[in-house]
Structures are given as C-alpha cells and as structure tokens.
Amino acid sequence: MELIVNVSQLAVTFAAGVGAGMSFYKARSQPYFLLTCFFGTFTLGSLHWSLYMLLFNSTPQVFYVSELAWIASFVFLLTLDFTLSTPGERRFHHPAAWLAPVIGVPLMIFYMTHGEILGNLLMCGITMVAAWLSIRGMIFARRQNDVRRNRQFFHIAVLSIIVIEYGLWTASCFWVSDTLTNPYFWFDFLLSASLFILLPATRKAVEA
Predict the structure, then answer these.
(1) Does the reported pTM lie above 0.85?
(2) Which domains does the chain have, with CATH numbers?
(3) Which parts of the chain are beta strand (E)?
(4) Higher pLDDT pick, 179 / 64
(5) Residue 183 in contact with residue 176, Cβ under 8 Å?
C-alpha cells in the first residue's frame, strides 16, 4: 500500500512540476521558477523513496537522500512564500502567526524522540517559518478589498500542505498496519491533493 501511495504522489508532483515549468516558460516569472524547483526536488525525494521500496521491498534504512530533497523542496516553498509577499504584508503583524511555533516546537521535540535530530530540526524549523508567513499572509490577504485578496488561496494551500505533513509525520510515529486502516496513508492521499492544489493557488497569487 505504501508503494502505491508513494507512486501516486510521485505522479502528482511530477505533473504539477511540469505545469509549473510550463508556466515559468510562458511568464518568465520568479515565483513559477521557485514553484518548479519545489515540485522538482519534492519529486526527486519521492522518486528515491519509491525506487528503493520497489527494488528492496522495504523503506530506506538511510533517510538522507530523500530527506535532503524534501528539505530542499520546503526551502524553495519558504522562499516562494516570502517572494510573493508584498511590502505591506511584510510590515503586517498578527498574533495568530505565533500558532506556528506554539504548535510546531512541541511536535518537533516529539519527532526528535522518534527519529534523527538534525533532519527533524531542519524540516520542522523551515515549515514553522513557512507556516508563520502563511498565517500572516492569509490574514493580511483576507483584509484586502481588491484582487490581492486572491493571495489568500496560496497561503491556505501552503498551510494545508504543512498541517497535513505534520499529521503524516505524527501518524508515522504510531504505525498501525500496511492497510488503509493506517491514518498515515490517508494523510498521504491528502498531501497529494494539497500539493496539486498549490499550482492553481500560486497562479492566483501571481496574478493578484
């Protein structure tokens, strides 16, 4: 089941990456370049993981190859989040943004007790900053009365990816089975959907 889920996610991110690449080719816009890099590196991580499972019938014992690709992908996502923000948004502050570290730090500590320290520190740190920016950006966008209001969909998509990722990581710490009774697989399906939604959401933000 895990291989099926991973291959389906690989197909989704590859298709989204091609779509983002085509958008960059047409518009020559930096956000589309960053989005293409996000999908590209995420796809590489999924490809390594899927090939390893296909060839050795088990998950990789050394996580660094896939994890480095996934960490790089979220660096690109964080950069994209910052690039799409306006000067007014960067000056805007809202206490709700602090929900990111309030929730993220305890979970990061929990993940460190179940896995490696450096990888969890990097991934959780990057995603917490991205979540902080997206919470702020979503609230700021919703207060606008013009086309800039459409930027909220990008921030909602980013937050969805991060929240689902945290659910996925948490579920992996309590592995139930290799069937659909395992919440891990449902989070993975949701992650695939949220990743694909990121492409049209970014288009709305770029056009805003």
Answers:
(1) yes
(2) 2-207 (1.20.1070)
(3) none
(4) 179
(5) yes
